[in-house]
Amino acid sequence: MLDKIGVKKLDDLYSDVPAEFLHKGAYALPPAMSEQEIRDYFASLEAMNAKLKVFVGAGAYDHYTPSVIPYLCARSEFLTAYTPYQCEISQGTLRYIFEYQSLICMLTGLDVSNASLYDGPTAAAEAMKMAIACTRKKTRVLLSKGLLPQVIEVVETYARFHGVEIGYVPVADGQTSAEGLKAELAKDDVAGVIVPSVNRYGIVEDHTGFADAIHAEKGLLIEYCDPSALAVVKTPGEWDADIAIGDGQPLGLPLCYGGPYVGFMAVKKDHMRKMPGRIVGQTVDKEGRRVFVLTLQAREQHIKREKATSNICSNESLMALWVTIYLSLMGPEGLKEVNRLSCDGAHYLYSELLKTGQFEEVFPGKPFLKEFVLKPKQPKLQERLEKAGFFAALPTEEGYVSFCVTEKRTKAEIDALVKAVMEG
Amino acid sequence: MKYYDKLIFECSKEGRCGYSLPKNAFPAAGELPQALRRQAPLDLPQVSEPDVVRHYTNLSQMNFGVDTGFYPLGSCTMKYNPKINEEMAALQGFAGLHPLMPARLTEGACKVYEEMDKALAAITGMYKFTLAPCAGAHGELTGLMLMRQYHINRGDLNRTKVIVPDSAHGTNPASAAVCGLEVVEVKSLENGRIDVEALKPLLGPDIAGIMMTNPNTLGLFETEIKTIAALVHEAGGLLYYDGANMNPLMGVVRPGDMGFDIMHLNLHKTFSTPHGGGGPGSGPVGVAQKLVDCLPSIRVSAFHGNFGVILRAYAYILSLGQEHLRKVGEYAVLSANYIKESLKDVYKLPIEGVCKHEFVFDGLINDGAHDDVPGATTLDVAKRLLDYGFHAPTIYFPLLFHQALMIEPTETESKETIDAFIDVMRKIAAEAAQDPNILHEAPHNTPISRPDETTAARNPILKYQEN
Amino acid sequence: MSKIIEGLKYSESHEWVKVEGNIAYIGVTDFAQKEMGDITYVDMPEEGDDVIAGEEFGALESVKASSELISPVSGTVVLVNGELEDAPEKVNEDAYGAWIIKVEMSLPSELDALMDAAGYKANIGE
C-alpha cells in the first residue's frame, strides 16, 4: 500500500503536519484491555452504583420495556446503518420512521411529526425557535413555571444565545395560571407559550381558553407532554395547540442515567415547513411501488446553512424505532392499561403515605396520574429511604418531595416503602 | 435485500395485542374529570408479538449497515462497531440508573464520566470536557455558546461574528446562526486550504472566533494552522475545532496543541459507537483551561447527555489503550491515500498530494457523454455502487466542486475489502465510458429503484392514511 | 435558450417585473426556473408585508436546493399568488404567467435600475 502511495513509511503520511504538532511520547491513557478485562472492569463500575427501587419520575420514568424491543433494536441492519440518505438501501429505517411519525400524530392529535429530536428539553428549545420563526418579528416566548426544571433551563440557555426574551407564567393552585397567562399576553410581542400537559407536580393541567387567548395575540400554543399519558389525557390537538413536544422516554426507554432518550415534535400542517429535523415522506419508485424518502429537505442545515431554522442534522433514529415497537406492542389497550396501573398504584401510595401522618397535602383534590408531590414533616426523607432500598421522595425547589409509581412497582414494594417511611 | 411492502398499521387486527402486564392489585383511583380526558379514539396498531417481530425483521432486511458491508462515506467515519461495547452499555446496573440519583448512589457512572473526561482530554489536548451534548451538531452549538459566554464573561460584548471557511460542513453556519452569531465566510485557496491573506482583513474586535475542521472537508491538513491560530488569538478571537474529522489525528496530533480553544467530538464517528440509522450519537465538547468557568452556565440537554453512548465509547477507548491509539489515525490515512492513488487515473483528483482520512474526486475523467446521451454524474456513480454491494460515498459535498465524491474508508476495513472497492470503482468508470445509461438507470439490484422525490416534496404524505 | 419577454423589467437575480401603473407583478424568469429544476415549494410573504428592493421576500425550493427571491422594487405586498401554494410546478410550466407577488410600489423610480429584455438577454449570455 505504501508503494502505491509512493511513500516509505507510515510517518510520511503526516509529512504535511508541522513537526511541532506531532505528538511525542505516550498518551496518558490506560493500557489496552482485552474483552475479558473490559467485561470485568465494567462489572466493577456497575457494582459501584446503588440498586434501588425507583419511585421518582421528574422527567424520566421507570416504565417496563418488553423484551421484544431490545431484541429487535439490536439487529445490526438497524443498529449499524447510517442516516437513510441512500433510500434504495434504507427502506427499513425510512419505513419505521414513517410509522413513528404516524404514531406521534395519533398520540398528539396533530397533523405532522418530524423524525424525532434529541430529548424533551431540546425539543422545547426547538419549539421556542420555531415559534419565533413562524410569527416573525416577535421576540418573546413564555414558559409556564409548571414545566420541569430541566426544560426551563435548557430553553433559557438556547434563548439567551438565540436572542429570545423569556417570560414566565406563574403556577396558581398547582397549575399554570390562566390569569397569569393573560397578564403576560397583554404585554405584547409573544411568539409562543410553552405549557405542560402534565406538570412538574404531576398534575394534569386544564388549558381551557389558553389557545384562544394566545391565538388572539397571534402567538402559538405549545404543549409539553408525557406521550404515555396522552393515551388518557386531552391531547394537544384537542387543546387546539399548534405544536406538541416532549420526551419519548416514558414509552419503554430504559432510564440509562438520562440518555439516550428521544425528543418528539408534532405540529399543525400550517407550520410544517418551519419544523426542524428530518421528515420522512411517502412516494413511488420508478416501478410505481410505495417507497419512502427523506423529504422537505430544503428546510435543513445542509441546504439552507445559516438560514436554516435549526442546526439539527440527525434524529434519535434508533430510539424512535424503540418507541415505534413499544407502541405497536402495547396497542391502544396496553397503553391505557399502563396508565391505569401506574395511576392506581400512585393513588394507593398517595393515600397510604398520608395515613402515616408524616406528610401534608400540597394540592388536595387536583387530578394526577402516576406522579405527585407532598410536603414532608421530617427532613432527610430521601436519604432515609435510600437506606431501605428505595429511590423516592425527591426534594423539589419548593420544599416538597416528589413520588412516582409506574406499572413496574408492585403493591408489596409500595407497602414496603410506606413501612420504611413510618420506621423513619 | 428484498422488497417488503407492509406498514405496521396494515398488520393490525382488532383485539390482538403484544403486551403482557401484571394484574392490577390496587383499588381503582377515580377517573380524570371529563374535560381533561382524551376524547379522540386511540388508533394504535393492534398486533401480536410474533407479528411485530416478523414485521420489523422484514424491515431490517431492506437496510444496509456497517455489518452488511463497506461504507466509504466521507466525513461520516463509518467504522466497525465492536460488539462488546453494546453489551457493556446494556448492563442493568447502568441501564436502570435514574438520572436524578445523587452522586452518592451512582459512583460507578460518575467514575465513567471522570475517566472519559480524562481520556478525551488526553487524546485531544483539551483541558476539560462536558459530555452533555447529544450529537455532533449539538456539540457544535454548545461549543459556540461557550465561545460567546467566554467573551461575555470578559465584558467583551461586541464579538458577534464567527468566521467559517467556504468548505465547512453545513452545520457550522447553521449552528452559528442558532447561537446568534453572524457568519463570515473565508475563502479557500486553489490548494484547498484556508486563504490566510483573505482571513487577515476579516479579523477584528467583532470576531468571536473561527470554526475549523482540520483536516478540512477535502481531507487536507491545514498546514498554516499555526499562523491562523496566532492571527485569531491576536485579534482576541477563539479557535473552534469541528471534531467530525478527528479520526486521522488519533494518536498523532492533538487539536489542543494546534491552538484550538474549543472542540467537539462525534463519539459515533471517531469512537466507534453505532449510528443507529441517524442517532443516538454523542457530541462531547472540550475546552481549554481559560474556558472552564463558562461550562456551568450552559445547560443543553435533559440530564447528563447520552450516557448509553458514552459507555460504548469508553469501552472502545479502553480496548485501544495507549498502545493502539495511533493505529487508528495511521491506518485510516493509509487506506484513504491508497484508494486515492489507485483511482486517480479514472476519477478526477482536483488536488494532488497526501490526504488524511478522506479525499474528494470531482467526478469521472471519462463520463461517457456522447451525441444526445448525457455523461454519468457523481449521483449515477453513487447509485451504481449500491448494485455492487457498497454504500455510496458522500456526494455533492463539499460545494467547492460540482461533481464532488468524497471517500473515507476508515481504519477497520481490510486491504481485501478496499481492493474489492477499488475494482468496483474502476469497473463503474469503465461502464460509464462504454454506456452511461447503465449508470443513469442504477441501482438495478436494490429492493427499490430511484424514487420520485419531487412528488414527495410537492405533495407531502408524512403519515399513514388508511385507503 | 430560455424565454425572455419584451416589455418586462428584469433584475440581476432573475426576477421579472410587470408594471401596471403603480402596481408591480413579480415573478422569476424562465432562465431561473430552468436553473432550479423541479420547483417543489414557493415560500411567499403575507399580504400586507413590506418588501424592499434588493432584499429577500421569499424562496423557491427544489428537492435539493433553496434559492432566495429578491425583490426588485420596494413597496407593500397587496396580493400573493395563492395558486402556487398547491401547484408550485406552475413556475416551471409558465414562469411569466406564474407571478408570485403583487406589490404596490413606494418608489417606482427604482424600476430605472432594472434591465430591459435585451439587457437581460445579454446578462445571462444568451
Descriptive account of the structure:
Chain A has 424 residues and is α/β, with parallel strands linked by helices. Chain A folds into two domains: 53-65 and 332-423, Aspartate Aminotransferase, domain 1; 68-326, Type I PLP-dependent aspartate aminotransferase-like (Major domain) (Aspartate Aminotransferase, domain 2). In chain A, 36% of the residues lie in helices and 16% in strands. In chain A, strands 2-10-9-8-7-3-4 form a seven-stranded mixed beta sheet, sandwiched between helices. In chain A, strands 13-14-17-16 form a four-stranded antiparallel beta sheet, with helices on one face. Chain A has a two-stranded parallel sheet with strand order 1-15. The model of chain A has no long low-confidence stretch (mean pLDDT 96). Chain B has three domains: 1-18 and 42-55, no CATH class; 83-320, Aspartate Aminotransferase, domain 2; 326-453, Alpha-Beta Complex (Aspartate Aminotransferase, domain 1), CATH 3.90.1150.10. In chain B, 34% of the residues lie in helices and 9% in strands. In chain B, the strands form two sheets. Chain B has a seven-stranded mixed beta sheet with strand order 1-7-6-5-4-2-3, sandwiched between helices. In chain B, strands 8-10-9 form a three-stranded antiparallel beta sheet, with helices on one face. The radius of gyration of chain B is 25 Å and the shape is globular. The mean pLDDT of chain C is 94. Chain B binds chain C through residues 396, 453-454, 456-458, and chain C through 38, 40-41, 61-64, 88-89.
